[in-house]
Every structure is written in structure tokens, then in C-alpha cells.
User: Fold this.
Amino acid sequence: MTTEEKLQALKQRIKELLPAVSVEDVQFEGPAIVIYTEEPQRFLEDSSIVRNLAKELKKRISVRPSASLLKEPEEAVEVIKSVMPAEGGIKDIYFDTDKGEVIIEAEKPGICIGKQGSAVKEIARRIGWKPHVIRAPPIQSSIIRNIRRFLREESEFRREFLKKVGRRIFRDKIHSDVWLRVTALGGCREVGRNAFLLSTPETRVLIDCGVSVGSDIIPYLYVPEVSPLSDLDAVVLTHAHLDHSGLIPLLFKYGYDGPVYTTQPTRDLTALLLLDFLEVSSRDGGEVPYKASHIRDFVRHTIPLKYGEVTDIAPDIKLTLYNAGHILGSAIAHFHLGNGIYNIAFTGDIKYERTLLFEPAFNDFLRMEALVIESTYGGPEDIQPSRQEAEERLKDAIQRTIKRGGKVIIPAFAVGRSQEVMLALERMDLEVPVYLDGMIWEATAVHTAYPEYLNKELLRAIYQGENPFLSDIFVQVDDADKRKDVIEENEPSVILTTSGMLNGGPVLEYLKALAPDERNMLIFVGYQAEGTLGRRIQKGWKEIQFSAAGKIENVKINMEVVTIDGFSGHSDRKQLIEYVEGMRSPPSKVICVHGEGAKCISLASALHKRFGIETIAPHNLETVRFL
Ligand SMILES: [Zn+2]
Assistant:
């Protein structure tokens, strides 16, 4: 059957199922079946119509008002402002042309929505667009604002792109045999450059495409299995860290023009980190093999998914993303093959413990035959202290420094670790300011824009107006003058700044100025990779060299240096084993990746002994057949 014939048949079927509602047109758009209607309010008033239809057709259903009903955005904004009371505090109004939605950001969403949704219903009737009222994020994020503006400019492209993707997803299957295999293109027995190819007779999906931080080796993207890149069906991104996302723009440079499935916060954080990566690398004379335009390609080809949303991404594969507990928006990618013949999940990076930011990684899968699991802390010696112990040690160290009149430097990654440490600091009732320098403030703004991705307790606090990120102990440092003031100020303080391993960023200026004074303290809360300045200082170097304007400057490290484990966004060995143990039924095959060789092997062997299941720690370029 051609796509046109399929759409006609589908339209007929939907009309039969909904005899009393107008169905003007039916389209495949990305992974959804979209119904265009002249009566959008009917669907808005009774949400069971869409629910029942989705259940009946086993597909994602979206409803859009037909184009003739949509008022011009300027006119629509006027109507919204005239209907919604000023006390609602509207902060921003923007249009999502993909979905025919208008998003209204307000300080008091309840007041804007009106009694039993009266204001929303009236607006929908008058402007055609479906109003969606959300709480305005308390800190404005410039990356989110830029991405929204960009996507609005690209709405024409998006429409055509989603149609093309939709037609490809809902194409007829060609093959009658069934098999499934995974090829390791990077990230096996090493940390960095994660990339895995999942293939079936019908479909090829790439999971992650990362850089090797601190080196220029890249995944094996030139092997026949992934060539040409334009033939890939989909790319799935587990989370924003560069060792998973850093080379996705390269795919677009080399001809890929299909979808990237990920969560919305991951899309935004990835754009933020990629742009920074490009800027920092070119400043340091390094080379990134793509341009800013390829990062924009990533953004406009992204199809955001929510946790738990079952989505067709190919004729034989459904994808569902689940919370990974690692950083904002991080996801475990679960693939469901055929009509449930086989299920395989890729954990990406996971934290199987409740942290100050997130719920523990999800592992309550109904079905799971195979699991590809990270092994960063998979070695027998990798047991981390509990989060509570880590917080107590951090508090002691900071108070000791304050008492002797010193300043504390905490180097941290902008995304994830910084916000976790911010929450820990906020709970300590410190009487000194906490300065935030580098990209931390912007990354925090993205966190506050997506509170539904945070853990329940934090979400509740934010909704009750007790947003800990807004505490007045936090002071943003955004230029060189303020940085100088912080350094010269004759009072104790805490400075949380990037980069996390001291390989660049504002942390170096603080270090240069504050290292010689023995009252000060440097606290490591994250992993320090071999070859970084952070690792050298951790090992006990007492003097370091900085070169500035052609001159070499020697700086003595007299400040106290402390390492506090336990703030990691990764599961330790115990948690990795508990993660598998806590599943409904253990998978029959576990693949251990994303860790130094010895750690992958050690975790694989521990899981095999413990659960009697087949485990493998593959090398890069190996292919494992599952079915
Ligand atoms: Zn990560």
C-alpha cells in the first residue's frame, strides 16, 4: 500500500470510530498520527476521545485545529491578553507550530486558566490555537529563549521534516525474518565516545554519538554498518554530556538528515554544551570537526519525547525513554521490537539512588530481555559513601575554612554536579555567600524551566514558592570585574565554578589567586581524569605553572586540598548490581560498557556470578547478536 492509500484508509477508520466529530485530514507527522479538525474544542472538552483512539489504533494521536481556524499570532496574543486577568502575571507567550499550540507562561497559572478552565476554553474557541498554560520559570534561560525563537523561524522546515519522518516510520515492512544485533562503535572498555548501532532487517538506530573528552579519537562511524549515515532511521540521545552527545552534529555534516529522539531538557542542555565546546575549543586552538550550523541542524531535527511515552520510530521498533537519575533529562532508552518479540534497553549513565535533584533510575520494566549497562564505577573498589555522609563531610570542610577566614573553591561540571552541590550548600545554613561562576547559572536556569524532571520533593518545594535555587546565598558572577571583587574581598566565601577538572574556565583564575594562602581550601567533588590539572593537584603537586601572555608564572599550592566522594551522578558498583537485582525479572543478557576495561569485565563477572545470566564486556567494533 502506498502512504497515500494508507492515510486514506486510516482517515476512513478514524471517521468510523468518531462519527460525530469533524475529521478534516489525517497525516503522519513524526511518530504521531495527526488529526486536523474544525472542532478542536470537542477534543479539548473530552480528553477520553484521544485516549480511546490511541488505544484502539495503538498509535500516538495528536489533534490540531485545521489551518483555516488559526488566528495570526499577533491577533491571538491580543485575544489572550484580553481574556486572561492581569493578576495571572503572564510572562511570555509563544507558538509551537509543530503542535498548533500556544504556550502561555504565567506566574499564577491557576488564575490564567480560570474556573474549570473557562478562560482557556474561550481562548481556544476564539484563536484556534490550543492554549497551554505553564508556570513561568523563575530564572530566564537564554539558551531556551534562543532555541524557541530558532524553532519558530524553522516552522516551515519542521512541518516538511515531520511529514517525511512520519512516512518513513509508517512504511511497510519488507522483510519477514526477524533478528536483532548491536554493534559497538565506541565506549566499550573505555570512558568516552559512546556510540552503539542497533540493527534489525528493517531498521538501523544509532544510540548516542559522543566525543572522547580530552582527546580527538572519535567513534567508528566509517564502518560499513553505518555507511552511508543518510540511511540511518533514527538517532537516540540518552543525555547531554559530551561523551554521549559531542559528535551528533558531525552526523548532520556527513549527510544524516533524520530525527534525533531525546527529552526536551536534553535537547536544550546539549545545545548549550555543544556551543560551549565549540567556543572553548576554538579559543584554545583545538579543532572541532563541525560548525555552529550543524548544532542548529541537531536542534531542528530533534523530536522531543517525555518519559514513559511509547513511540513508534520505525515499522518494527517502539522507543520509550525512562528517567536515568543522572542529570536533567537523562534517559534510559528502551526498545521494543516487533509485537513484543524482544526488548532491549540502554542505560546511558544511571544513578540508582535518590539524589537531591532526581528520583533514582527507573528499572520497573514490564519486559526486558537484554540490558546494556554503564560500568564507570563497576570495579570492586568503587564503593561510594552515601549522599548524606558526603554532605556532612562537605559541611565540615567548609565550616573549617570559614572559621579560619579562608575561601573555598569547588570546581564542578556546569550541568548536574553543580546543581546537586548547590542544593547541598543551600541546606547547610551557611552565613557566607556562594558565588557561581562559568556556565553554572545558565545551566541552573534550564533546571528551573523543567521542574517536572526533578524529584517530587524538589518539585513540590518549587511549586510552593520555596525554590532553593533562588536562595539569596547564591550570587552570580558574570564578568571579570565581579570575579576580581570576589577574589579581593576580605571575607570568607564559597566559589562554585567550572571547569570540573581544572582544564580551563574561570576556576583557573580563582586558583591562581587563592592557592598560595593556606587558609583557603580546594574541594574536589567530581572525578578527575588522568592528564588533567585537577588530577595532578589531587595527587599532591605543590607548585603549578600558568602561562599568560607568553610568560610562565609559578604558583605555590599552599591551600588545603580535599576530595569528597559521594556526589557522583553515576551509580557505584553496589548500586549497579542493585539496579539489576531490583528488576521484575533479570534480563537474560547483560552487556557491560562505558568503563575502563577492568571495570567492565569485573562488573560483567559479578553480575554473571550473582544472577547466573549471560554477561559480556565487548570490545569496540564487536557485534552482539540478541535474536
Ligand atoms: Zn553522563
